[in-house]
Predict the 3D structure of the following.
Amino acid sequence: MKTRALPVILTSAFLVAAPRAASAFCRTTTCDPNNAEEECRRNENDCVRDGVPIKWTELPIVYRFHAEGSSKLDSAGARSAVRSAFDAWANVECARGRTSLRFREGSDIAKDKPLGKKEAAEKFGIFFRDDEWPHQDAEESLALTTQIYRKTSGTIDYADIEINTADTDFRLTDDEGSTKVDLQAVVTHEVGHYIGLAHSNDPDSIMVARYCASADRCGQSTDVARGLSEDDRRAVCTVYPPAAGSSEAPPQGCAQASSASPAGAVVIGGLVFLGCTLVRRRFGRAT
Ligand SMILES: [Zn+2]
């Protein structure tokens, strides 16, 4: 039987590399643009490029619920939303496997964070502020992540998340017709700060400074609104790459947009407090 040789067609394809989207994510650095005494230069993405990116030196990173939770939200549902927010970042798949970022839920914290204090008695707390928002811009603020880091090395020693249940109606379900604010989306943003990311100018990013600023992010489904963008995933894969233990910083760092960071930094004995809020969308304002 004769076989007919199939002509081999060499297609000399020009492998034109698809234009790679430039990273837009920002990291929080030890240069605080809210501190009038510091001059922090920014890069083309409006990320602060001075200072050392702040970082955790040990994984897993711990978070702990304040035992009291919120009287305004179903306790199990609220905890589930918060856990899902942490999981979203830890489950990112990078080109060479899953990110090395891991979290561990510690035991509940009994004592509330004192109102107006920058630091709770115990680290890593998730606090619901049912009665009063003890920070600036109560009506605008949805949540605040506070970190304390070492000024020289950027090593994070303390973090907590406060959620403004006093002034905000949160929802736990994916009721897309609701005008309430989605708790999981807000906490996912705060977890981005928790791991050392700053606000991003990429409108698709969960790290935009304003909740649901973009219709692309919030005009579709709850899953999209809660989800990470490509650039958010790139941020995790860069800072917490799959290879264990190599969480070294990329050469550039960044800090949050100063307009959305009402809390100033206070240097105390070489430790710096940094607070970063997510604020409400301003309805009717084009973004
Ligand atoms: Zn924020």
